Amino acid sequence: MEKGIMSLEAKFRQHKCCVILPTFNNEASLASVIDDVLSYTDQIIIIDDGSTDATSSILASYPDLEIIRFPGNKGKGYALRKAFIRARENGYKYGISMDTDGQHFASDLEAFIEAMEADPETIMVGARNMEDAGAPGKSNFGFKFSNFWYTITTGIKLPDTQCGFRLYPLDRLKNIKFVSRRFEFEVEVIVRAAWRKIPVKAVPVRVFYPPEEERVSHFRPFIDSFRISILNTVLVVLALLFFRPYLFFSNMTWKKFKALIRKELFNPEESNRVKVASVMLGAFMGVAPVWGWQMAIALGFAIAFKLNKILTLAVSNISIPPMIPLILYLSYITGGIVLGKGAGIQFDKGITYEFVTENLFQYVLGSLIFGVILALVLGFITYIVLLLFRKPVAGGPGHQSGGN
Question: pLDDT of 4-25, one tens digit each?
Answer without folding.
Answer: 455 899 999 999 999 999 999 9
